[in-house]
Design brief:
This is Gamma carbonic anhydrase family protein. It comes from Microbacterium koreense. Pfam families: Hexapep (PF00132). It is a single chain. With 200 residues, the chain is α/β, with parallel strands linked by helices. It has three helices and 24 strands.
Length: 200
Amino acid sequence: MLFEHLGVSPRIHPDAVVAPTAVISGDVEIGPDCHVLHGAVITAEGGAVTLSAHAIVMENALVRATATNSVHLGDHVLVGPMASISGAAIDEEVFLATGTRVFNGARIGARSEVRINAVVHLRTTLPADSIVPIGWVAVGEPVQILSPERHEEIERAQRELDFPGYVFGLDRDTPDLMAQLTERYGRSLARHADDRRIDD
């Protein structure tokens, strides 16, 4: 399903294959020989999404650009089932396994692997040829790759990266943080009310 969002329609190369149950919304460019499988969602929420040649986005994956952070997938990138990418740049020949999460402002260097259920956190840069093991977390600048039981270290690095400030422009210590966050984000998402399906 293809949607015009904020007045911009997706552009899909004629050699690309997009499953009929995938959702492609807004300023999305899908390059030659790309494949987007059933249930995948690729949405440009104010920033652009670009898939270079031979990129694959598998079943039920989410690729979301934001007004602050566009998304770029380089040549020969594989995004596994149920993976999630929000506002990140992925260099060529990267493997993002099933269930991986890549957050806003992250950058993943060429030929890296982010394995099953691993996380690349906000504003984190993985150098080329990096590996994030199954279920581990890459966080900070310079990057630390930590096992999940090292929660205190991960939390310290996360606080410095300031997710609510960077993504939503809100102070983490605001007493009604979630009320402000959901109201502000809801106003932004309400822009989908004017989306128009273009592949009927």
